[in-house]
What does this fold into?
Amino acid sequence: RDAFFDGARRYFHAHAYGNTTLDDLLAELSSTSGRDLTEWARAWLQTSGVSTLTLEHTGNGHHDIVQTDPRPHRIAVACYDHNPARDLVRTYRVEIDAVDTHTRIELPDAPLILLNDDDLTYAKIRLDERSLATVESSLDRVRDPLARGLIWSALWNATRDGELAATRYIAMATRFSTNESNLSLLTAVLANAPAAIEHYLPAGARPQTRAAWLDAV
It folds into this structure.
């Protein structure tokens, strides 16, 4: 952040009252950050699509962050565990650069590992199986609304992409929406759950699921 504002100040000073190109801005930002932003600009501004980040366990605390449509990402990865009150709170956090298809990372053992913690980059994230199981039983115990928002978004993206069964998403929406205190998150869930029922369930399963969802809300 500091490097960006320093580069912006230099950019406005050097080109006051003049016309510029994107390269002029990137040159100043590259100078102050110590990073060549040419490849960053190509990956982020001249290509389409969105990266999907997945965590793969390779054993002994080692993990790989695997991404489709590789781009340079600065991301935070956090571990959440239960405190004495059984709330899920952040117990570990690390920031790394994920550039290639696979990025190695070491993490402590935790029931919930959240990629892109604090929402530092633009990407879709997937929950590993253990984290998904934790979320299925304890999503309402995640007290940080930003973390819950990332989890809700990950669940919906996985459902929409056909990687999470719609029945599992609807079950979580039914169970946890009644305890969702953030109005923006609740509004999204109340829109997504009916969409999942109408578009992602077999026709024969919809009437009973509609009725159950109506009872829940």
